[in-house]
Known about the structure:
The structure is a single chain. By secondary structure, the chain is mostly beta strands. About 10% of the residues lie in helices and about 70% in strands. The chain has one helix spanning about 1-25; strands at about 35-50, 55-65, 70-85, 90-100, 105, 115-120, 120-140, 140-155, 155-165, 170-175, 175-190, 195-210, 210-225, 230-240, 245-259. The protein has an eleven-stranded mixed barrel with strand order 1-2-3-4-7-8-11-12-13-14-15. A four-stranded antiparallel sheet has the order 5-6-9-10, with no helix packed on it. The protein starts with a helix and ends with a strand.
Amino acid sequence: MRFKHIIHMNMSRTKAAVVGLLLAVAIPSGAQESSSETGLWISSEVQKKLSAQWSLSGEAEYRLRDNFGSTDRWTVALSTAYKPLSWLKLDAGYKLMRVLNPGEAKWKDNGVDMDKWTPAWWCTKHRFFASATASLSLGRFDFSLRERWQFTYRPETTTDRYDVDDDEWEEKTKDSKSKHAFRTRLMAEYNIPKCKVDPFASMELYNQKGGLQKIRYTVGADWKLSKQHQLSLFYRYIDSKDSEEPNMHVIGLGYKFKF
Length: 259
């Protein structure tokens, strides 16, 4: 009887922890609605299980921002995952990204008159990443903690820029740029009895050279259509710590095929 009582107490604490995470996701502190915009992320993934421990994945993603008004980026990625232990997964991969950068205005010293104007411009980025994910199952709850390192490189590129005083277009060279980022994600999932829909919630921290850059709060659900096909729907709030980047409300749609 004492053993059952201990199990009951542990499950109660687990449920309380999940509720706490859900509340943290649903009500992010310090949200500034006035500087927010809405986006849509659509992704498709194919995953091949090579063995009991190894798997290979390919993914394509398309993103909209500016309240669905403009493209943010599109991405294709290839990654591999290895499970040395039942509770530990290691993965690494590469992403090719085409990003649409917003227009840029350079103002004169008086702060009123425009000096130069650069329209929205495309660039290519290369991203490499590696991560380790530890998981723990308690009853119908699954918890996971993922630590990821990523390196993003943008080669030198040339764009068109308008000179207001000379009333002419000129070429502007954008120098190459690279940055490292470290991401920490805590996720909780729940397996509903006799139901093909599994809800989940997560919180992810983005750290770069200057410190914490943004926090992602996510709630959603996975719908297992069959052993091979799965659909995902989520809502994500991105709390940006960069004054030049707006906060984001994101609707996400995803499809995964396993074979």
